[in-house]
Write a structure and sequence with these properties.
The protein is an alpha+beta fold and 304 residues long. The protein is built from two helices and twelve strands. It has two domains: 86 residues; 155 residues, Rod shape-determining protein MreC, domain 1 (Thrombin, subunit H, Beta Barrel). It is 35% helix and 23% strand. It is rod-shaped, with a radius of gyration of 50 Å.
């Protein structure tokens, strides 16, 4: 009964479905017709107009997503390249530092060789092995001692100038008081010995790294840039050794000496190798015990 009713309904509705299909086909054919002047399919144009926002959004998402991932890949590649460049730069800086150190050592060794070739007292070359860290003393320790012929008060120099003097000795080491120590002193002259009357004495100023020259007459001309040499009158340093360069002068008067500040010519803060002069000052003649006009053979009244 139900099956018969269903078939009957289908037969009744078939014309309606046929009309609807014909209508849809007509509509599709009409929309598919080409416009006479634009030669563009109306149906496709309508579809494109409807779905254009969706296509634009999809295209934007696709391009943005692709660009984002490309940026990530580019960032990773740039980071790797940056690390590579940093490594190369560090290697280059290390090579340049090694070259500079080798160049500096070469200059230093050339200076020592030139110092060794200079005539004068015999020299013992030594390496600095320690430096006193105390704020009260300016001393260094070298790796040569009495077994190498080094004794107390022997002068220590570099190609630049004087360093100081030996103040303590063991068989294999020696302690050197730098010229900048407050207890260090040396006879000195401004300019060449015999060509200047600006005689005085240099004394260290402690941790300032400078040396002060005293007792120079205020009538003598002293200027910044003048060089200071030893006179040999102190019984420690031979004459003609370079002390340093004048960096400041507080002019004196006829009754007041100059105040002269000197920068040592030896690089005392960068000492690596030094030379010890096996120097003994010449013996001074003993002073006469009697006046020149006194007859030494005649007994004194106290001897009678």
């Amino acid at each position: 009964m139900a099956a018969t009713r269903t078939q009957k309904e289908i037969r009744q509705r078939a014309p309606i479905w046929l009309v609807m299909l014909l209508f849809v086909n007509f509509v599709v054919m009409a929309l598919d017709a080409r416009e006479r002047f634009t030669q563009q399919q109306t149906f496709k144009g309508l579809v494109q107009a409807v779905f254009s926002p969706v296509q634009n959004a999809t295209s934007w998402v696709s391009s943005t997503g692709g660009g984002f991932f490309n940026e990530i890949l580019n960032f990773r590649a740039t980071a790797r390249e940056n690390e590579t460049l940093k490594t190369r730069l560090a290697q280059t800086e290390l090579e340049l530092r090694n070259i500079q150190e080798a160049k500096t050592e070469n200059y230093r060794l050339q200076g020592l060789l030139a110092l060794k070739a200079e005539p004068g007292a015999e020299k013992v070359f030594a390496r600095v092995i320690a430096r006193d860290a105390s704020v009260w003393f300016n001393t260094i320790m070298i790796n040569r001692g009495s077994s190498s012929g080094i004794g107390l008060n022997m002068p220590v120099i570099t190609p630049g100038g004087i360093v100081g003097r030996v103040v303590a000795v063991s068989p294999v080491t020696a302690q050197v008081m730098l010229i900048t120590d407050e207890k260090a002193a040396a006879g000195a002259i401004v300019g060449q010995l015999g060509g200047s009357g600006a005689l005085g004495s240099v004394r260290g100023l402690g941790n300032s790294g400078l040396v002060e020259m005293r007792y120079v007459s205020g009538l003598q001309k002293v200027e910044t840039g003048d060089y200071i040499l030893t006179t040999g009158q102190d019984g420690i340093y031979p004459a003609g050794l370079n002390v340093g360069e004048v960096i400041e002068v507080k002019n004196g008067t006829a009754t007041q000496p100059h105040q002269i500040y000197i920068r040592p010519s030896a690089r005392l803060d960068q000492l690596t190798e030094v030379a010890v002069l096996l120097y003994r000052p010449p013996q001074r003649p003993a002073p006469e015990q009697t006046l020149p006009n006194v007859d030494k053979t005649k007994p004194m009244p106290s001897d009678r």
